[in-house]
Specification:
There is one protein chain. By secondary structure, this protein is mostly helical. The protein is built from 11 helices and no strands.
Length: 273
Amino acid sequence: MNPRLSSSQKRSNSKLILFLFVAFGFTWTCWLPLLANKQLAADLPVLPGQFYLGSFGPLAGAAAAELSAGRKGFFAWMKTLFSFSFPRRWLLISSGLPLVYGCIAILAHRLVTGSFPDMHRFGLTSDLPSGFNIWETSLVWMLTFGIGEESGWRGFLLPELHRSRSLFASALIVAAVWMLWHLPAFWFNDNYLGMGFGVIGWGISLAYGSVVLAWICAGSRWSIIPVILWHGIFDTLTASDQARQVIAIACSMLVILHGIILMRKLGRRGTQQ
């Protein structure tokens, strides 16, 4: 066995363990009081926007893991994370795709319910102040779950796994971790509480969403700027109050279809050297 390879693998494993510990620890610490208040009427004190604060767990985990390897590596990671040195078509792809999903979902809503969604409330959620418009809501999603999650899932975990696995296999592992990370939300967040057996579809769409985002991130030379755009716009569409039925389902089905199309392409991509 190559001693250098063995040492490198040990460092990688240590970084992955630290990442998972901090990412889950930070988020679940933020979310468990919300769960206790919802399920046990514990009346624990919580901060305004504490649900959104929990989104920064993956970012905290990735930062801790990179800092553990030294400040030089940390700053190099940050430079890649928010780099604009990628083909600009990925900005169009990452923003255009969820917008196409949304347009098709609106038409699906019209076909199923017989009416279009209320465009004055489109994309808005009661989880945010009532004065927010759709642009402010989208910005909140991008600055919280967009940056908070993507810094960890696509900015750290995906490329770290891709060192020894295909991009497709790496994306599926990220999806499994991503699903588990959401676990407390199923006991306090209304979007998850009402899911029922729809959790199966949610899990499948999240897995294929991980494939789509892996494709975008690798094409963007591991910058997370395009995936932040995709994530923020997609959350605006699917986490809104009006999206809990037709719109969310339609968007998820389109993501699954896109992920299936990408499966073979990503599976042929070898490890990242």
